[in-house]
Design brief:
2 domains, 31% helix, 19% strand, globular, 282 residues, 8 helices, two-stranded antiparallel ribbon, alpha+beta, single chain
């Protein structure tokens, strides 16, 4: 929902046939970018007491400006993986809100809204077939973004604690595992770690790094030493289950579309990743 920007220009002409005097024209220095309210997938749940978004269903953001486009094209910020972070900080209207403190799903909602208001609801990009590697044009409709929220978690063996974490039992080891929802700070740190691994030609460890980050405790042991040991030795069955539990608990927004390769006929669902390429796909 956009805020009306009319009052921000000052008085307008009377609409007559004569050209208004220069003094009656709005002063460009009085102009400020309009804003819109974005619905949060979390509905304000998952934020601690005292956080500006605790219990809030929406967040107010500014429309993107030329200055924001500078952020998205900054080679320095792109190289450091900080372009999206700086963009979010620029767009959030309430300066009390730290972009790094937002839940990942809420950050994604802001990114989609900003992209849609700036460049329209059609996102044109290219998709690579995972079967034959043929590259073909593909369009996503941002108006068809799907919000996923936690449902009856108790029915699937997941318990929510009073402090906003979630507890489940792994199918293979039968460990009791407590997890938390990831926030912007976690995304920033994971990106930095992945870039460092690439720079050192080290193998990426995206799955295990994510598990170590959202696991709070295992059988009530919450030290990094215990969590690291469990993750390093976790069976693939338990790893897959735990990542599925995280998705069940995490409010999010996704853009998913059916993909069919014109070359080999391979079909699958495609999900849009929310990086800088989401704004500059070409």
């Amino acid at each position: 929902m956009s805020r009306n920007n009319e009052e921000r220009f000052g008085p307008r002409g009377d609409g007559g046939s004569e050209s208004p005097a220069a003094s009656s024209l709005p002063n460009p220095m009085d102009f400020v970018a309009p804003t819109e309210h974005v619905e949060l997938p979390s509905q304000g749940q998952g934020y601690p007491e005292g956080h500006p978004l605790c219990g809030e269903e929406t967040i107010e953001i500014r429309f993107m400006t030329a200055k924001d486009e500078d952020i998205l094209t900054s080679r320095s910020l792109l190289k450091k993986g900080l372009a999206i972070e700086r963009l979010l900080s620029s767009l959030i209207y309430d300066q009390r809100i730290d972009a790094k403190s937002l839940l990942v799903g809420d950050r994604n909602a802001i990114i989609i809204a900003a992209r849609r208001s700036a460049y329209g609801n059609i996102y044109s990009t290219k998709a690579t077939c995972p079967n034959c590697t043929t590259v073909t044009p593909h369009e996503f409709d941002l108006n068809k973004a799907v919000v996923t929220t936690p449902e009856e978690l108790e029915d699937i063996g997941i318990t929510k604690t009073d402090r906003g974490t979630f507890v489940c039992w792994l199918p293979k080891t039968e460990f009791k595992v407590e997890i938390r929802l990831l926030k912007g700070q976690d995304e920033v740190e994971m990106v930095a770690k992945a870039q460092k691994q690439n720079k050192n030609n080290s193998p990426e460890r995206n799955v295990s790094d994510q598990l170590k980050r959202f696991i709070v405790s295992v059988n009530d042991f919450d030290t990094p030493k215990v969590i690291n040991h469990v993750v390093e030795n976790l069976t693939a069955v338990d790893s897959k289950y735990l990542r599925g539990v995280y998705r069940q608990c995490s409010p999010n927004i996704q853009i998913i579309d059916d993909f069919s390769c014109p070359a080999c006929g391979y079909e699958q669902e495609l999900e849009v990743p929310f990086g800088a390429d989401f704004f500059w796909p070409e």
